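re the bet — no i am not wrong, look at it urself. input seq straight from the record:
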Amino acid sequence: MTNLTPEQRILGRENANQALGVTRRDLLKSAMAAPALGAFYFGYKDMGNRPPVRAAIIGTGDEGCQAMIRSHNRDYLNFVGYCDIRPSQQQRAVKEFAAHKQYTEADVKKLKKYAIKEEMLDDPDVEMIVIALPLWLHAPVAIEAMKKGKHVFTEKLMAHSIPQCKEMCRVAR
C-alpha cells in the first residue's frame, strides 16, 4: 500500500471530505438510495393495469446474463424466453433467471428455450427482442426483428456503424 503515517491518513481523509462536501460514509449511504431514485429520475410510473412488456433475449453471454437478465425489473419487462446457440450459455441463462428475485421456480420452468432466432421472432407471445449478441450482429438481428413487427432493445451500442444505425432507424419508421 502506501507509507503514510496515521496523521497523514487522517489529514488526507479530512481533505477528501472537505473537497466532496460530505464524508465517505455519507456518500456511500446516499448511493444506496440511488436504485430506488432511478425510477423516479427516469419518470418510471406504475404500470397500473397494463402488463409488463413480454420479451425474449437473444445472446446470454456476459452482457445478456449479467446486465439484461440479472438487472431487469419484471414489473416493466417480463422475459418469456431466451435464445443462444451455446448450450453452456443456455444453462447459464436458466441459472440467472432462477437467481432473479422476481422469478419463481415455476416461472423459470415456463421460459421458452428457442433453438433458433427465427423461432423466437415468429412467436406471437414475444413483443420485444432484447439483443445481447456480439456488436456486429446487432443491426442485422434488430432489422429482422423489426420487420417481424417486434420492438427491439440492443444492449450497449445500437450497431457497429452509423450506416447500420441509419438503416435500423429507416426500418423502425
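see?? The chain has a mean pLDDT of 86. told u. also The two ends are 56 Å apart (CA to CA). so pay up
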